[in-house]
Amino acid sequence: MRADITYHWAKDHLRIDLGDRTDTRIKIFYWIELFFTVALATVFMAQAFPLKQQWIHWFTVTGAGVLYILAAVRFLSRISQREQLILTPHHFTIVRRSLITRDVQHYQWRYMGPLHYLGKDQKTDHPLKGISFDYFGFETNEHFIQNLHRDGSMYFHYHNCPVRFGRFVYSWHAEEIVSMMKLYMGNELQLGAEWKRMVQEQEWD
To answer: Who's near 84: CB < 8 A, 6+ residues apart?
Structure first.
């Protein structure tokens, strides 16, 4: 996983490229899912040959082809996910892109609430947590699945609706990002109370 976050200063904007922040275990999961889907499609394809006049054979071949395409598109889209943050005097823009898709969302500063750091989502502890015979790894898997579906570690409210961003951005990265944002926006950048606590905890460390 590339942990470097790059900052591009321009005359009229600041662009923050969060880079490749996908956890290595998540990437392994993506590869396993791809291989499983391709193997399943290959089994279907092998069962359809030799091709005959029966509609079931052609239907199977078509289904296998669709599985191949879906597996490739899903894998490429997820493995190449990137996030960029673009700050201008009037807007905060979040750009999410991959090899296949590109999503751009603009937010006006005047309608944005304070910026918060969520960190890891709170979860209900598994009943086997702390028990030495958790052979099946339920607790570990719950953490893993939780990370898999994370929408972002940072958020703000826009017209009373939460907007999350910064997937797999840890606290020390978040503090660096906020420092750069404050250099650009000054006191116009509103921050939640937890930022002060995070800085104090780091000073104690």
So the answer is: 15, 16, 17, 18, 94, 95, 97
